């Protein structure tokens, strides 16, 4: 069913990156290592975006997730010294949680592969068109009054609010 | 040098004629192209270090390296050979795998930027539609290398140095990216080749001088060059995040840094100085190498002279300079440029063709806008400087001292 | 061409691993990382659906971009809360943070 | 197809880029002497014995800088598609960007007024 070509190889490599990285995040005790696994996983996802011809999102993924969020997480790990203190990795419900996550995965996989809930379009093998809207169209859509201009401004407001909130919470006001 | 794009069809055809499957032929040509593109910086860096030492020596009225080879040209090669035989020490408690990974990432991320640099109209590694963001993204992986180098060394100084370096890199990435918005706005493309083509009429350094200066300053800080090299000031503190590294791993950090500085000049030349544009380049594309190299060298030489003449800033000045000056100026610059671009479009002055005369009216209007920004900033600097001097004089008069040497880099809010 | 369901399957896998991490990890920072994984899986889904079903409509990419914003805001505030809690309780273990229990 | 080719180049570059720094490090490993001992391998903190844990407590200011950077980074990334399409936008597009940047600038002004930008 799958032709063995460069795209398939790339897909497999990125799938290994993102799934392996994700597994590493939840199983590693050392939080810095976990962050590096997170970076690996996010990098795999960036590769997916390239394969899906959304290179802009791939660049954003690297820039925002790897360049900013991962660094912020490392800062937080260092600030809380949280890598040395915890003896138990998981809480007591780990077995139950594993079962829940496993069942969720099976259900999702079934819903994706076989049309359990009727024909839903996940079975298509190839994109409906080879023509893809590019980053320019994204830019136009973001400031188009009939499309996303309101979410666009709200996103800015949300980030401003998040920053103000985070500064208020994180700062030590005792000093 | 990089023949891959211009003659890729010939190479692929030759290989397929020789009996190689088309896929393998494609792969082989790509690999050949990658090796070519990656070798350019590797060879350049050897001469860069020599040039850097020579220029620093001339500024300080010394001779610089002059023993090994003609004019000391082979000094760097000798240094590299010496470094190969140096013992490689891994400190106790270091996270071995990550410790060894950091120098590799440090070097690789710099080489990776070269993939999108247009050397001539025909020679470019990969002309991505998001080339500009690609280089910013790859450069932002650079913070990861510093983080893991500092953390895995199991050394307090390395960790502290790494954190300070990361704070610096993160901060200066903001004006860097903001200043890149302006060429994108004018050109309407993010592909590096497209940006250079769009500068056929007018270099962006004339249309957006403020953005060009912001880009240059932010790049100096991003690459840790003087006057922003306080985190590994070799003459004052031991080193930064790479204190525990020795031998060739340390060499990788240093070579990566030199290359990054040169790459930054290269990018400035591509984005703001018209890249490979020059007389006769459309007839003889290979001339592009020469023009690009010349422009890059001018920018690089300027940063070298800065390095050996300007004193280091303090870390609080570094942060204040970025957040209280560069970022607000960049934001204002984006707004002013955006407004003026709409204005020129409404007035019908936006260039339809890519020649000098067509671009002139828009350039003049943009230049005036930039001039206004510069004047406002200079006025602010003067007022703040005067206020600080007067405040200092007042306190000194109260205390009885008369020293009033203040640096104007401080906060306008005070 | 890779069929759509393979992307969705990988995204489902990442999402479930993230769920497991959120449910089991005791360290608040690790939980936050797992949440990022889940958001990331959502993003892969959005972009995959966009590419395969509606490649000319910008909804998929625009939504993915807004998910980036949400992820950034969540990381910023979440980590700030963790730092504040650590300052007061000297702990980042979520079971120790039970001030709101009663 | 051309687009795929460009990214194939990047993909190959990413898989090969680590080889260039790896080879000299490998060469150094073969050539360089290796006689480790306890003194040599101890951490170098200006010749003084290492005291306490390496994971010293960091100032929250690092986090604040990272935070402000994160917000700016995400917003600037949003501005890139806007800038890319800017030639094709009218004055409404300009105002949308203006409002967006205004909120962004608000965040900076707040941080400034709260002295969150000071290196303490």
The proportion of residues in beta strands of chain B is under 5%
Spell out the helices and strands of chain B N to C.
HHHHHHHHHHHHH
CATH class category of chain D: Mainly Alpha
**What would the average pLDDT of chain B be, to the nearest integer?**
82
CATH topology of chain D: Methane Monooxygenase Hydroxylase, Chain G, domain 1
User: Main β-sheet of chain D: number of strands, strand sense, barrel status?
Assistant: none
Counting DSSP E segments of at least 2 residues, the number of strands of chain D comes to 0
- CA radius of gyration of chain D is 25 Å
Share in helix of chain D = 55-70%
Helix-and-strand structural type of chain D: mainly alpha
- Parts with pLDDT < 50 across at least 5 consecutive residues of chain B: 1-7, 402-414
Number of strand segments of chain B? 0
**Helical residue percent of chain B?**
55-70%
Low-pLDDT parts of chain D are none
Task: Please summarize the sheet with the most strands of chain B.
Answer: none
How much of the polypeptide of chain D forms β-strand, as a percent range? under 5%
- State the shape of chain D: flat
The total of helices of chain B stands at: 13
**So what's the oligomer here?**
heterotetramer
